[in-house]
Amino acid sequence: MNRSYSSSNFYGKVFKLALPIAAQSMIVIGVNMLDTMMVGKLGDDPLSATSLANSFISVFQIFCMGLGMGASVLVSRYWGMKQSSADRTQADDASIALKQTVSLMLRLTIVLAFLFASATLFCPGLIMRSYTEDEKIIELGIKYFNYSIPTYFFLGISLTSTIVLRSVGKVMYPLIVSIGAFFVNFSMNYMLIFGKFGAPRMEIAGAALGTLIARIFEVVLILGYLLFYDKSIMFRIKDIFMSTKTLIREYIRICIPVLISDGILAIGTNSVAMVIGHLGGTFTAANAITSVTQQLSTVVISGVSQAGAIVTGITLGEGDRNKTMQQGYQFFKLGLILGTLSAAFIFIFSDLIIGYYDGVTPETAATAKQLMNAISLIIVFQGTNSIMTKGVLRGGGDTKILMIADNIFLWVLAIPLGIAAGFYFKMSAFWIYIFLKSDQIAKTVWAYLRLRSGKWIKKISTGS
Predict the structure, then answer these.
(1) How many C-beta atoms lie closer than 10 Å to residue 396's C-beta?
(2) Which of 59, 144, 272, 387 is deepest in the core (most CB within 10 A)?
(3) CA–centroid distance for 268 within its chain
């Protein structure tokens, strides 16, 4: 390995992208944590209902991440081609392919939002019953859903548009927008949940409405920037309706496996939430406390993961395969380091975080502590393979194999083991969680072997 390359140049490029992405993720997670904490003041049932309703909304969010990250693979590669090509025709082809990719992504996002909004509108009770049999929690969840129906459209468009802006290096503007959305969400939630400053006391419905208002704020600023001010992609309103025939085959080959992979993983993650929901209100409330903490502890990992996909795509777009392999090994080492730091964060601060939720029962707090201990072990593996599978390998265009591997490890290994541990062997919360997340350990080993093979680097064309 080239030692001069492997130090400051690499880390400077990665963290220039990763830190604003991580900061934005922290703000988004901070909003979720505030929601959880505020609703947690109302008791276990509202906390469980909000957590389970958001599990379904999170499925949509993961689908959108799949759409956005799939498009990001192409956008970063075409951006690299456009920036490095001395051939004017090739640069123009890459520019057109950039716009076609964004157009296809936005169309699919709107279709997906319509499907989820329709499901939430017409069968909210059925959705909640898939998570729990507790009628009180179901009733509260339906109330939350009633105010969440339009959220899908605003959330989907802002999320996917943010990802493509990051793919061409625009990371600071989305961060600034998220800071604004944080204050909007916090203010609206405080007013509407507890009935402050003359607003009605809406409790759980207020949490949903506050989030909706923040999403509207977000999409106006993000989409407005993309359509009217961005000078990199140069995507404008008329381009939404542009012909995309020449790119459809390449888009399907690269992007659709990412969507399918993340979509099926979302269903799998949702299935894990269903398993947890049927283990009882105590386990569900405890998981709601720990899940936000887990997300908060991995924001830098998430940022590095997305930076990994962008850096890998741009480097391959410039035509440098050897440099891409060097970067891959450095990303793997970085994953191990960041995973270990995240584990330490959770282990050190778990008692302090759990102690804040003074509205929950002692049984819920004790279960949350077990889950925190389990997470601090799993996060080392989760952090490493996330940077590899969602970052480097995906950025190399290895999306089809990733789709297969991700879902084999989840459906054949993790979910069956978790169900057996929870329902048949009646194990403790610690071991149930370990088995539910055992795919993270297996994927870490697989990702390293895939990296060494070099087979993950795929050729991508502009479709012209």
Answers:
(1) 29
(2) 387
(3) 14
Q: What 8-state DSSP symbol labels residue 234?
A: -
- The answer to whether the CB of 61 falls within 8 A of the CB of 162 is no
Under 8 Å between Cβ of 240 and 103 = yes
The pLDDT of residue 254 is above 70? yes
Rg (CA), the chain: 22
Split at pLDDT 50, 70, 90, the class of 1 is very low
How far is 70 from 259, CA to CA, in rounded Å?
7
pTM of the model: 0.76
Rounded-to-integer distance, Cα 185 and Cα 229, Å: 25
Closest by CA to 333, choosing from 409, 213, 444, is 444
Q: State the number of CA atoms in the 13 A half-sphere of 262 facing the CB.
A: 22
Cβ–Cβ < 8 Å for 164, 71: yes
Q: Which two three-digit tokens encode residue 276?
A: 């947890």
Distance CA 72, CA 98 (A): 10
Q: Please determine, for residue 7, whether its predicted confidence score (pLDDT) is greater than 60.
A: no
Cα distances (angstroms) measured from residue 183 to each of 189, 200, 213, 423: 10, 19, 11, 42
pLDDT score recorded for residue 4: 44
Q: How far apart are CA 425 and CA 415, in angstroms?
A: 14
| Residue of 163, 157, 155, 153 lying closest to 68 (CA atoms) | 163
| Helix axes of 299-317 and 44-84: crossing angle, nearest 10 degrees | 20
**Pick the residue with more confidence: 452 or 45?**
452
Distance of alpha carbon 401 from alpha carbon 409, whole angstroms:
12
Which positions ≥6 away from 401 have C-beta within 8 Å? 450, 455, 456
Q: Which amino acid is it at 28?
A: V
For the chain, the residue count is: 464
Cα–Cα distance, 448 to 452 (Å, whole number):
6
Q: What per-residue confidence (pLDDT) applies to 393?
A: 93
Tokens of 294: 């887990």
Average pLDDT over residues 407-426: 87
Give which of 295, 391, 305, 344 is closest to 21, Cα–Cα.
305
SS3 readout for 30-87:
HHHHHHHHHHHCCCHHHHHHHHHHHHHHHHHHHHHHHHHHHHHHHHHHHHHHHHHCCC
What backbone torsions phi and psi does residue 206 show, to the nearest 5 degrees?
-65, -35
Task: State the amino acid at position 217 in one-letter form.
Answer: F
Integer distance in angstroms from the first to the last C-alpha of the chain? 36
Q: How many CA within 13 A on the CB side of residue 49?
A: 26
Tokens of 407: 């879902």
pLDDT tens digits along 393-406: 988 888 889 888 88
Contact 462, 81 (CB under 8 A): yes
What confidence score (pLDDT) does residue 8 get?
64
- Could you tell me which residues come within 8 angstroms of residue 438 by beta carbon, excluding any fewer than 6 positions away? 413, 414, 417, 418
